Backbone:
């Protein structure tokens, strides 16, 4: 029995503010190339996601913090090199949570065999068909309880989650206003995703005024990926009985001190608004219906997606840091082979 040298990215210090290269280190680990009970997986793709920033802090949350000196974790797709004592076969493609490394060895129960969908690349199971897609589906249709024909505002609309939210809303015959940073992203939202109005928040003096002008009759649903000024704008422009699905607040993930909240929360009372936060892991029961619906939309040519790809495990920290600079259009991925 031989060994495989697997490169991996470890967290060596906890970021203060924006993550920096010094917070990460590259190392190697030896793994047996065959034998043993656990399957050996060669990773092909890995995901970097904004929620990982929270796990870099040593605070209690809905997921345990990353441990210093240990490889980071996250969604990954790989192929079985050696099945161990499992029922997998060499070459099977699997989804798991041991990203940030070239090879993974884990209990077979932690691996999900993927059934590839015609016309859809394998890595879509880390985006459109994976956690971001299910997040969009659960948040928009179940948390926000979207109704046909409503007016929807989506922040971070050109990101992995926001792009799916925007297109699902269009499938439900809604008027969609998407916010993104930069002319390129806004052009993609209008020309490809099909939103009705794309707001470049970097070019607007006031996102509240821009949203009010885009939706003079108000909005019914706000899907929040950003927080801050976008949340305040949504509350200001929202119609009575409106709903807010709080998915993330990336504008605040790297803050070193707490910011004041929106100063117009009192409007939630008079407008009878509902605001609810959620995490996708609480909605895994929706996965079968989500895959059925999404599969149908894809087959009908009704869903478009983009990927921003960095190559090689060494680029994973840069890909993660660039998320917070808004350098991704669609899903941010690292290709490992």
Residues:
């Amino acid at each position: 029995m031989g060994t495989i040298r697997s490169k991996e990215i470890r967290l060596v210090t906890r970021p203060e503010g924006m993550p920096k290269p010094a917070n990460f280190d590259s190392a190697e680990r030896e793994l047996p190339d065959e034998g043993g009970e656990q399957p050996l997986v060669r990773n092909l793709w890995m995901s970097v996601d904004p929620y990982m920033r929270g796990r870099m802090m040593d605070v209690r949350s809905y997921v345990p913090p990353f441990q210093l000196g240990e490889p980071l974790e996250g969604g990954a797709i790989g192929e079985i090199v050696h099945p161990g004592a499992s029922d997998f076969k060499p070459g099977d493609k699997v989804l798991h949570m041991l990203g940030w490394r070239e090879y993974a060895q884990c209990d077979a129960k932690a691996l999900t065999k993927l059934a590839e969908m015609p016309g859809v690349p394998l890595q879509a199971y880390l985006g459109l068909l994976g956690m971001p897609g299910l997040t969009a589906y659960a948040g928009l249709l179940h948390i926000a309880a979207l109704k046909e024909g409503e007016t929807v505002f989506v922040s971070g609309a050109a990101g992995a989650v926001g792009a799916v939210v925007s297109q699902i809303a269009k499938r439900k015959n809604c008027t969609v206003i998407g916010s993104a940073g930069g002319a390129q992203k806004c052009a993609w939202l209008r020309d490809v995703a099909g939103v009705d109005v794309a707001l470049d928040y970097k070019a607007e003096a006031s996102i509240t005024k821009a949203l009010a002008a885009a939706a003079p009759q108000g909005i019914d649903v706000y899907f929040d990926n950003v927080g801050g000024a976008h949340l305040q704008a949504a509350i200001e422009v929202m119609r009575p009985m409106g709903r807010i699905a709080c998915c993330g607040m990336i504008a605040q993930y790297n803050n070193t001190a707490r910011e004041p909240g929106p100063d117009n929360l009192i409007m939630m009372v008079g407008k009878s608004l509902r605001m609810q936060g959620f995490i996708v892991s609480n909605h895994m029961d929706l996965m079968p219906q989500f895959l059925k619906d999404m599969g149908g939309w894809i087959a009908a040519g009704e869903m478009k997606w983009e990927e921003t790809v960095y190559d090689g495990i060494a680029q994973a920290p840069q890909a993660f840091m660039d998320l917070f600079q808004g350098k991704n259009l669609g899903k941010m991925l690292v290709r490992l082979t």
